[in-house]
Amino acid sequence: MFRSQTKAITITLAIGAAMLVWNVPLATATPIGALTYLETDIGGGAFRYDYTLLNQSDPMADTGFDIYDLILFLPSSVSLVKSELPTEWDSISGPGFVEAFSVSPGVTPFGADVAPDSALTGLSLTFNARIGPTPFQVLFSNPVDPANPVIYDGTATGADTSQVPEPTSLMLVASGVTTMLIRRRLRT
Q1: pTM of the model
Q2: What is the mean pLDDT of residues 139-157?
Q3: What domains does the chain contain, in order, with CATH numbers?
Q4: What's the 3-state SS for the chain?
């Protein structure tokens, strides 16, 4: 029995060494982007969207897969009224789209791209109508093949603005539950 275990370990080590020698990738990178927004009605039919662009890629497995371009796909009747962008980002827009992009390649402190497990804030766009959840596309730099960026498609989602209970409200609920439990124990 000891010999069969030793043989299995030897074979496993040989396969692992062969994979390292021939540089066989053990896993492939899967860059993931997300776009959340906070919607504000500013009157006159215009809405401001404060976006947060998230690179949800794994910082270890997806090193080098940085977001450098964001495209929002809009109804053709919607147009961009105003844009406020982070430093080192610019935008263009036309019928049916708004594109925001980094003009400084690389990640902080040398560039403005969004590295894995980080976020870009300060992206505020005002439209002539309410757009809500919007299809988007982000482009990731591809460290394996720089000429072919990785594309991720998604839909922007509203930021969770649910109210957090005040501490006094929590204390009131906790004391009520405690009172109910004490009364139940005293009855038995």
Answers
A1: 0.70
A2: 92
A3: 33-158 (2.60.40.740)
A4: CHHHHHHHHHHHHHHHHHHHHCCCCCCCCCCCEEEEEEEEEEECCEEEEEEEEEECCCCCCCCCCCEEEEEEECCCCCCEEEEECCCCEEEEEECCEEEEEECCCCECCCCCEECCCEEEEEEEEEECCCCCCCEEEEEECCCCCCCCCEEEEEECEECCCCCCCCHHHHHHHHHHHHHHHHHHHHHC
